[in-house]
């Protein structure tokens, strides 16, 4: 039984390493360096599927990317990460080098298509600029964003002109 538990732990570590290897680079963030995950508990399985489920105050870091969630599920196939799903109230993430941060009820990371998908009261900032809606898809490689609203509602955005953005980074007063 002890060998089975060790085997599952090794599979989980291999899955996290595969995630790191498959993820695209973004100014030192995703795809750079090891993935560190801390949580209150972990359940991993190799049969019938490769899956690791972290629960309780989950913190995942890789490079300058930090994700905080209640649950993080990593699904793999043949040792390759297919999808990572973080759930929380809300899930938060930061990408320091890209000066982006955001939150939503669910965050899905798809390494093959290099997408981060936020759903449920989703917000994404770059510096002071903000977009919000029901669903935000952020394409890591070309840094494009697609936002959709709840039916009957509208997408919201706030953008600061370059000069206003510089002065907003201080005390909010113009120099």
TrEMBL record:
One of its GO terms (biological process) is lipopolysaccharide transport. The keyword Transport applies. One of its GO terms (molecular function) is lipopolysaccharide binding. Coiled coil: none annotated. Keywords: Periplasm, Signal, Transport. Residues 1-20 form the signal peptide. InterPro entries: LPS_export_LptA (IPR052037), LptA (IPR014340), OstA-like_N (IPR005653). This is Lipopolysaccharide transport periplasmic protein LptA. It comes from Acidithiobacillus sulfuriphilus. The gene is lptA.
């Amino acid at each position: 039984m002890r060998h089975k538990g060790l085997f599952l732990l090794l599979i989980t570590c291999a899955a996290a390493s595969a995630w790191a290897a498959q993820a695209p680079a973004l100014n030192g963030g995703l795809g750079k360096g090891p993935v560190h995950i801390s949580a209150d508990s972990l359940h991993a399985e190799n049969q019938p599927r490769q899956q690791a489920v972290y629960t309780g105050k989950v913190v995942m870091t890789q490079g300058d990317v930090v994700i905080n969630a209640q649950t993080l599920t990593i699904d793999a196939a043949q040792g390759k990460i297919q999808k990572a799903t973080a759930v929380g109230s809300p899930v938060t993430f930061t990408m320091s080098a890209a000066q982006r941060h955001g939150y939503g009820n669910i965050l899905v990371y798809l390494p093959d298509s290099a997408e981060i998908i936020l759903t449920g009261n989703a917000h994404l900032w770059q510096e002071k600029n903000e977009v919000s809606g029901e669903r935000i898809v952020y394409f890591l490689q070309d840094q494009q964003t697609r936002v959709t609203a709840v039916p009957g509602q509208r997408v919201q955005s706030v953008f600061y002109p370059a000069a206003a953005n510089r002065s907003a980074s201080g005390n909010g007063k113009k120099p």
